[in-house]
Amino acid sequence: MNPNENDPIAPIRFIAVGHAGAQILEVLRRAVPAGIECAHADTSPEALRSSPLPRRILLGQSVNHGLGAGGDPDLGRQSAEEDLPAIRTFAAGARIVFVVAGLGGGTGSGAAPVVARAVRESNALVLAIATTPFEFERRRVAYALEAVDRLKSAADAVLTVSNQRVRRMHDDKTHPHELYRFANDLLAQTLCGLWRLFGAPGLIPLEFSHVERLLRGRHAESAFAAVEATGGNRAHAAVEQLLTHPFLDTGAALGAAGEVLVSVSGGDDLQIGEVERLLESLQQGCPQASFIVGATIDPSLTGRLHVTLIAVKPGTAVGPTHRESPSVAAGRSGSQESPATGVPSFAGEDFPGSPDPAESAPSRLLPPAPELNAEQRQRVLKAQKGRTGRRKPDSQMVMNFDIAPRGRFDNTERNRHKGVDLDVPTYLRLGIVLN
Question: What's the pTM value of the predicted model, to 2 decimals?
Fold first, then answer.
């Protein structure tokens, strides 16, 4: 008997919001031979006509008159609100839905949080995957920051990838299209790993309830990464890639994690000893974390080892492990829509935890992971030694303060000054622990 037969997985679906999200999903579709259920939601009829995705959802025809959002997030939000039934129809019956978008423009920034909220109302586990603009795009950065706040309140977990971080991995002569392609490939690789997490038979079963308990209702940014390694020492190579991965802030997110989910996929040549060695090495880099582990067999991966990892910081609020009825969800929506859970999520754009002063210096190595050569990996790993030790316990109990919902002001613009959200209390913005 298959251990997963008592925990059947309903369809896993992907919905791109805007043109950038559609490009990411197209890379994913090429990487997954079995095919995936995906849709492209957009405010622009022209963008949908040229979309590579088979299912298309036009948002807000009566609101924007077929002219798109024009870079206005408020118009993007109104357009998505106009066509919520089409979003709910696509999500109906799904147990996991990925909302994929590029933030900074009108459609991505305005519509993605609305789409995520509508999908969550169907009781699906909602994971939002998004890119954020370059620092010189100041207006778009402000829109993206606002959108991330809203996504945190709407989705169960959020992964953001900064184009500025990708920019630092390349020299000044790199073409912008190459930067976008690199970021899209990293996101697609991570999405592919998360898709495989449920799509192959289990050597070590990993049930949906494990992932649901880890992410449901946290409304915070979580760190995701997926890597692939080959060769006789592929388990060690996969660990090195994870410890130098940009999505994990070169290992800092692992050092700060309270819970880590690891899914290992391989072909018929996968050995239990490889899984053992890989996990032992990862546990040394995550001294405080408890692990949830799964291993799957996929014949197409023969000769390769694929590892997907989700890291969650300790103290984040845990949601229910059961699926709620729409009426119950509606009754709880006031508190769930709040973007905060009482405990700060991973600080910064790349989950850096609590870095040492030396780590934030301008000379800090930011290698173009996961494609690092042996010398670069050793430099990063050497720099990490001594910073993963077990933390000393606090002398006093940490006091957690809930941020009250904004109520009637929830749909108004947030107060920002030079990109800083002044509606977030100072102690949260600065990462100050109140004892």
Answer: 0.67
